[in-house]
Structures are given as C-alpha cells and as structure tokens.
Amino acid sequence: MGQFEYPLVCAPIPVPKVWAGDQLSRIRGGTAEEHIGESWDISTWPAAPDNADLRTVTVIANGPLAGTPLDRVAALPVVVKVIDSGAPLSVQCHPHRLDEHKNEMWYLFEANPDAYLYMGFAEGMTADRFCALLRETPQDEEQILGALACHRRLERGRHFSVPAPTVHALGPGLLTFEISERSQITYRLFDYNRERSRGKLDIEEGCRALLHPAPHPPAPAPLFEIDAPVETLAAFSTFRVWKVAGQHITVRSASHQHLVTACAGPCRLDGPAPEWTVHLGYTHTCLVPPTDRGYLIDTRGSGEVLISPLLS
After folding, report:
1. d(CA 102, CA 94)
2. Backbone phi, then psi, for 129, in 5-degree steps?
3. What domains lie within the chain, and their CATH numbers?
4. Where are the beta strands (DSSP E) in 128-186?
5. Half-sphere exposure of 288 (CA within 13 A, CB side)
6. Tell me, what DSSP letter sits at residue 96?
7. C-alpha distance across the termini of the chain, in Å
8. Chain mean pLDDT for the chain
9. Distance CA 299, CA 292 (A)
10. Whether the model pTM is above 0.85
11. pLDDT digit string (tens) for 49-70?
C-alpha cells in the first residue's frame, strides 16, 4: 500500500438507475436523461454489487498522484456515495455480525417538500412481526410500510445514523450523502411489488440479520484539534461523522485519515504545500491524510462542512 501526503480528490463514478432523480445532474452538470441515481465518490470497493462489470474503485484526479486508482495509495473502511432518489428505493437492511457489518449514515443535501424516508420500526412493531409480514405471499404493501417509522417534513441538513441491521429506505425527492462501511452486502426486503424485483428479494437473509444482530463495539475517539464547534452525527467503530461550523476552520492536527465533504456549498482547503490547495464543489468529498502540520477549510459563506475520521 502506498502513501499520500495531500488531500485527494477522486473522479466520481456515475451509475444510471431506473429510480434516478434530476437533482444530481442539476447540481453537478449533465442531463436528467442520463438517469444518474448514484455517484461513487470515494471508494476502494472493487465492483458494484449488482453489476460485476462496473469497477467502483475511484481514481485520483488531482496532484502528483492524478490517474492513480485510490486503492493503490489508501486502505479505506468506508465507501462514500451521493444518492439521487427520484422514486422510492427498496426497503432493506444490512448485516451486523462480528465478521461482517455495514453501518452507515445519511446527510440530506437536498429534500423536496414532499420527500420522505423510512427508518426503523413504527411504535409497537417487532422484528418477528415484521418478518412475518415479509413472508406473506403476496406481500401486503400497506401493512409492510405501516410497520415502519416514516419521516416527513425533511429539509437540507437533516441527518440519520443507520446502524446495522436497522430497516431503512430512502424515498423520492432526496439527494443524499451516504457514508457506509466498505462491505456492500444489502438485504432487499420489500420493493413495492415492482416487477423488476420479483424473485430477487433477500427476505430470509435479512430476517436473520434483524433477529440475530451482533453487539456494536465501542467507537474509539480519534485525536483531532479543530478550532470550531463540532457536532457528532454518527459514531461507529470504523468511522465517525462530524458537522463542523464556521467560515474559516483550522484543523491543527489529525490522528487519522479523514474525509471532508462540502455539505452546504463549495469550500476550499489550503495547507502546508501547494498541492494542499483543493477546491471542492457542493456535494463533493476529498480524502485528507493524517497530519500534524495543520490546514484551513474556507467554507465560502456556507458555514459548515462534514469531517469524517476513518478509524481502521
């Protein structure tokens, strides 16, 4: 494994999806006709889980390492995507075993007025009862969705920690930052009885995850010196996500490699060498090495960024 000594910006990998919206193309350029539903922005995962021919290792786009696949210079415990959901995504969960787990976190870049999402069970619902509903033939959409906690009145900046094996589903009208553990195992439990999903659900695997989750290990505390208010949005054993507020944010030392995400508007990083100067467009993320030399984040008036320490 190589090393890197300045913030790395990678070329996003756009992936067309039948459920894609038009927000990502509007913000990043492109056309809605491309139907880009998700963008792999920071990844060392080898291939898309639903398309073995789609290589999903992002390639470095800046500085002396430009053109180098990211997995040659960094080992990452996470994958960063931006998801543009124009239609409801499937109801799903992820495994949480000691040897295989996929915890994740969502931050909403954009949310239409009628947008919604599902997260966890409705009050009084249990995993046993929910799995019984999933096993019915045909699946009853009203009962299954009624068993879930539906979140409405969403707006930019809302965030959700999604510890495995929480049942979840993004609804339409959302542009979402998703950081997840590197495992790409997803159990699809319900897909609104759409024809394209017939015979492709993972009900038994998902119910095993729901009924027999492993305990969550404690989240270590990374050593960072940041001269701005920090709010913890998610804390897992492999990564954390902090929202950091300020117009000019100085990171004086950082014990771990970490991600910086322009979550509210474009931002700029400046550091101890010329290659540290990085311009991030709104919704984009860069990977920053551990450093004791310090650097500055100029939020360009937006007033906040996400900083995500990577802990393994």
Report:
1. 6
2. -65, -40
3. 8-211 (2.60.120.10), 224-309 (2.60.120.10)
4. 148-151, 159-162, 168-170, 174-181
5. 33
6. B
7. 14
8. 94
9. 21
10. yes
11. 888 889 999 999 999 999 999 9
Instruction: Rounding to the nearest 10 degrees, give the CA dihedral for residues 275, 277, 282, 286.
Output: 40
How many Cα atoms sit within 13 Å of 73 on the Cβ side?
A: 23
Place of tokens 């290792």: 57
DSSP tally for the chain: helices H, then strands E:
4, 25
Q: 247: closest CA among 309, 296, 177? A: 296
167 to 52, 103, 121, 149, 193: CA distances (angstroms): 26, 12, 7, 9, 17
Q: What is the pLDDT of residue 2?
A: 57
Beta-carbon-side half-sphere exposure of residue 234 (alpha carbons within 13 Å): 28
**Count of beta carbons in the 10 Å neighbourhood of residue 218:** 9
Q: Are 14 and 41 in contact (CB under 8 A)?
A: no
